[in-house]
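Internal ticket - ligand job 518, magnesium ion:
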Amino acid sequence: MTPTEPATPKIELSSVCKAFGSKAVLNGVDLTIGRGESVVVIGGSGTGKSVMLKCILGLLRPDSGSIRVDGVETANLSERGLEPIRAKFGMLFQDGALFDSLSVWENVAFGLIQGRGLPRAEARDAAIANLAAVGLDGDVANLYPAELSGGMQKRVALARAIATRPEILFFDEPTTGLDPIMADVINELIIDCVRDLGATALSITHDMASARKIADRIAMIYQGQIVWAGPTAAIDHADNPVVDQFIHGRAQGPIKMQIRRL
Amino acid sequence: MGFLAAIGRAFLIFLEATGRLAQFSATALSHLVRPPIYGRLIVRQMVDIGYYSLPVVGLTALFTGMVLALQSFSGFARFQAEGAVATVVVLSLVRELGPVLAGLMVAGRIGASMAAEIGTMRVTEQIDALTTLSTNPFKYLVVPRLIAGLTMLPLLVIVADIIGVFGGFLVAVYRLSFNPAAYLSQTALYLTANDVMAGLVKAAVFGFLIALMGCYHGYQSRGGAQGVGAATTNAVVSASILILVCDYLITGIFFS
Ligand SMILES: Nc1ncnc2c1ncn2[C@@H]1O[C@H](COP(=O)(O)OP(=O)(O)OP(=O)(O)O)[C@@H](O)[C@H]1O
Ligand SMILES: [Mg+2]
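stdout (structure tokens):
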């Protein structure tokens, strides 16, 4: 635990609720992320982790509750008001969300060209450097996303998310679909972003090894709420049956999978 | 009771859709006049709509002009008014068939591809990704298409009118043995600036509507491939219907 909590946390969610039709997905989420902290959110499939990220980015509007970024309430800002807030973020989407009409380097350079107004030649060099950081060489720069493997697409998306060196980084399952060695390279990259660039990171993962490696703090989401949050080292004696079942990957326990045996 | 409720529900759904469309259009228009403007994207859309639609629109116009000449000749021959063939061909093309047929062809070609492209971007979260990269999707995706539709359709229609008149000329001269010079002077005789103006205004309105429907339905699409397919169909159908309705309204304004 950091002994002195900074006055305004980077991101603060309180009682955030979001439902799709009659289906409540987020049910009063409370989560605080300090400046320069790396928080990992874990939780079962379909528990609303991606929805939570999209609510913070303003891509989805929460039904109720408050979301503050650097102390600014974003939950009811207009689209125009959200623009300066969104400029602080870099987001890795779970499925990559690469622009399929643009080449790989144009994807990575997109935020630099459109957002920062960099000349194309300069942005291309920056893009190739970012691609190198995720283990992709210059050959792929001129390919199109459809010509890449799933894991390569994920890494291009990661390079795009960090290319503008944003203050806040969101990673939605950064290591899913990667081989164990590349997964560790990505873990290191995320740690570098937080440590060297001073970014604040919020990651989602199912990969406990990755979570232990990149997280300062871990939070567990279950039934639309954060049921446990604490320092990474404390997760092994969290004393919470839900967390216990999840980190040990046991089918038996309080989390019931909706399945029927054949 | 159940019957009334069904009507009420349908009416509410209609109002909701209209409201959404109005809001979408208002947002799009507000971004139309605020910088930044993406020149490269506008040019690319203009080439797509204007240049690559030329073959389709040209062929349509050519055969329409030819069939108009043939039809009006055989019709007017019944009361010895064959001299009016050139006038009928040029007026029907410029005032009516040029813009409407070009509009319908472009709606099928461009409206569909806009809806499919933007719809795919929506369901694969590429539009969300744009937003997180400090790029407004309205400015980046919608505005270039609206501008291109608005400006390119009138140009296409001018070309279509010329090709259509030429088609009529070919049939009149080579099949119906008109005198070429007489036919051409007859073509120019009754054509007024107002006729041309009305045709171009129609074309601009149709071009705008095609792009608006393509973008709107693409932007609103939900769910995977099926949602994109539905968006494509809706874009073409709604643009076609709007073209026919607006055609009537604009004709009423210009020629009443
Ligand atoms: N746009 C949407 N419309 C309707 N329901 C949605 C939408 N987005 C998400 N949901 C629902 O919200 C729930 C949470 O989705 P979410 O994508 O946040 O899950 P997740 O925790 O990220 O799961 P995973 O680990 O599998 O990615 C799911 O049950 C999903 O059906
Ligand atoms: Mg998810």
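Auto-summary: Chain B touches chain A through 16 residues (CB under 8 Å). Residues 38-255 of chain B form one domain.
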